User: Fold this.
Amino acid sequence: MTSYSHDVVIVGGGIHGVGVAQAAAAAGYRTLILERTAIASGTSRRSSKLIHGGLRYIETAQLRLVRESLRERRILLALAPDLVRRVPFFIPVYRNTARRPWTIGAGLTLYALLGGLTPDMRFGALPRRSWDNLDGLQINELQTVWRYFDGQTDDAALARAVMRSAASFGAELVCPADFVSASRTSAGYHVSYIHEGNERESLCRTLVNATGPWVDLTAQRVYPPPPRLAVDLIQGTHIVLSGQLNQGVYYVEAPTDGRAVFVMPWKDRTLVGTTETVYDGDPACTHPLPQEIGYLTTTMRHYFPGHNLDIQESFSGLRVLPKGNASPFHRTRETLLLRESSNPARYIAVYGGKLTGYRLT
Assistant:
């Protein structure tokens, strides 16, 4: 009878990797997670810090994704109130805004319906007397300000908390660990990795590739080669400005192309993001581009002309989206799971996904 070191070996310590580790360990599986640098060292600490249903995905008819995300948001608000909090979101509509007040109102109505019409899905238009209190928001030609509620988090802190939970169920974390290879045998996957200068091994039933933008590079170290999905890496950049917002998160249209941009409070500063730029290169070398920073500062100046534009920090992360000719905005944000099974060995690769939906994955 085969003696397995672990039932599940997970490569990658981002939010999806630690989420899989938590679920597997809680179900009683002997679980090992291999992380090269640190928990949430990649995309999982470079997000927009939001736990949200994805209001903008209604526009691209991703209704199942929105419904699932709203359910997950509700669960996370209940499970981790110290890490996920409900905050007001404001959508200003101006005379030249592409999406008209009634369009946004209809979208918010559908959003509330998809969220089950619970009290936390309430929304409405702010009275004119409240506009002057909106953190210096430009009010010239402002027609309507919609307010609804969604969630905000510290993405890296959330991932670390999930890893602690996984460890409490018995999951083993090896970090730093360089994944060397995995070979399928008649008994499962033979996994090799380097830790503290020494090569180590594990025999497991299931191998999970949760390395985010490195997913295809990791797959190249698996034998025989597993199938892969055709994907694009899409860079999203954020900037952190000095100065604090007090009222909540602002959901605005970039004046240059009408894309959705969030302006939000973040650790006594202001976070602005994000962009969508097709990326072709080493995932470890992603960095904010001058045109992306210009795009975000132009958006900020347009809506908050009195706000300090002193950039304290900028960062970029990579989304994994299905390859296609459509703009990144119109491609699905659903998590894509690629599975290959050859009894008793199983390989699963996690492509894409949202921070909000890690539990569902």
About this structure: The first helix runs from residue 15 to 26. The CA atoms of residues 193 and 351 lie 22 Å apart.
